[in-house]
């Protein structure tokens, strides 16, 4: 009666009678499923409750104890939340910063990856080590200096040529975009270079023979052949920038430029204990975009994480 | 098309030289950005850590190693260091253990079930810690928060959670575990699935029981994955900031002040940029040493078969 698909080792068990028999034959096989379901309740619970509370009326939120489910769905909470958190503005800020960071970032990283993968130049390996080295030092070490560099960037934000007098790059999208690109680049360049190195030299030579420029070789040969890596990088970086909190908190204090994470945090105080339902609607709105992305690309995310994870 | 691939070697040296120049053009933007926004700042941080500066118009004042000397006896720093270590232990150990358990449980399920649970468990991982921390703050509410309501409905006393000096850090660690478990599980799952079935089959033929299989096949072959998760988890937990800022702002009474939060306070609330930089460099050193220790001590016991 031995099976090979169930628990490792659950061939005809030694004890098939009595209590241990029942345990082994009946309980043990369903234990994994029970465990998984139990924990998934804990994992999903907060999301479920967040959405549930977001649809409650104030009386229910104020009631003691607050129910698990709303008596009726107060969808009106959402337009309310939409306005209070200035959702269009905040969403645009986050989206703009994310798209530019990931887009411009990948563009520059692809160029560099191609150079490291395929071109020979003096100092190539040294520079590449320098690129990788940026993954070793935690961002907190440089966050203070980069803040100061942004504040004193010459000829922007009211600064003179010595970088004095104004706000520099602070309170602008670029203060978020540029340092974030730098932080992501080592990882991207590493993976893209890996992918590029796997493309046969003959393909590239054929393109050269046909008179392609370097530009076309990169964008019409190497990148299309690296779509899985690109997709993974895009999604991972997108989520990373979208969810970033510490850095936007440091460089932005103009409410018109808040990103989602900063806006939610700053607004905490305004909601007190009477408006949790509205605030939960705000957090639902704030997490919704990421969920949308997750639904459509979860296989890329998970596959990407496991691949990079396995490469250690 | 029978065009032969012309070997790159047969091109003239002028072509190679032109391509070398091209290479520098291609990497120039990245290099410039790295110098200005990374390596420059690293040097600047080293310099700042030896100065006292409020970030204002007056230039930094050189103080040598005084910042480091002060840090060594700073009670808040020492508290933040202890908190960070505790937080790391309270996050890494449970998340790795439970994550492994869940991965083992998931590994034997049918493919569709496996994919379903994987998607479900990974959901917290993609959310912003800063935003979910707000939701958890609501769950942790002493009055009428979900956790306390559940406790009371089971006849248990309500807790103060993030308001209590002793419970605040474990509460934040709980949130961190919730956030990370899916990630750990997915990585362990990938590791488990890369173990060839033949090993198990051969062992079963030899009469191995499930515990033997785990002990002699599964666990040893999982050690690279485990080491990877351990190192990355330690590094990540030592850099915690978002949930602390959102839920407790380092309190109550510095009970949840962690190293990165203390850096933030010093640099951007107290305007002690030199002091903050020094703490940041110490954090870097700590992470470096911990990673090196893990590699050395545990790396030897990793099986790469």
Task: Report on this structure.
The complex is a heterodimer of chains A (312) and B (305). By secondary structure, chain A is an all-alpha fold. Helix content of chain A is 69%, strand content 0%. Chain A is built from 14 helices and no strands. Chain A starts with 17 loop residues before the first helix and ends with a helix. In chain A, 41% of the residues are buried. Chain B has 305 residues and is mostly helical. Chain B is 72% helix and 1% strand. In chain B, strands 1-2 form a two-stranded antiparallel sheet. In chain B, strand 1 and strand 2 form a beta hairpin. The interface between A and B is large, with 102 and 111 residues.
Write a brief caption for the model.
The complex is a heterodimer of chains A (312) and B (305). Chain A is mostly helical.
What attributes characterize this protein structure?
A: 312 residues; MetI-like fold; 69% helix; disordered N terminus; B: mainly alpha; 2 domains; two-stranded antiparallel ribbon
Largest sheet of chain B: 2 strands, antiparallel
CATH fold-type name of the largest domain in chain B = MetI-like fold
Report how far the terminal alpha carbons of chain A are from each other.
40 Å
Global morphology of chain A: flat
Instruction: Give a count of the beta strands of chain B, DSSP E runs of length 2 or more.
Output: 2
**Quaternary state of the chains:** heterodimer
Going across the biggest sheet of chain B, name each strand in turn.
1-2
CATH class type of the largest domain in chain B: Mainly Alpha
Characterize the main sheet of chain A. Answer: none
C-alpha geometry of chain B: globular
By CATH, the superfamily of the largest domain in chain B comes out as MetI-like
In the CATH classification, which architecture of the largest domain in chain A applies?
Answer: Orthogonal Bundle
> What's the architecture of the largest domain in chain B, going by CATH?
Orthogonal Bundle
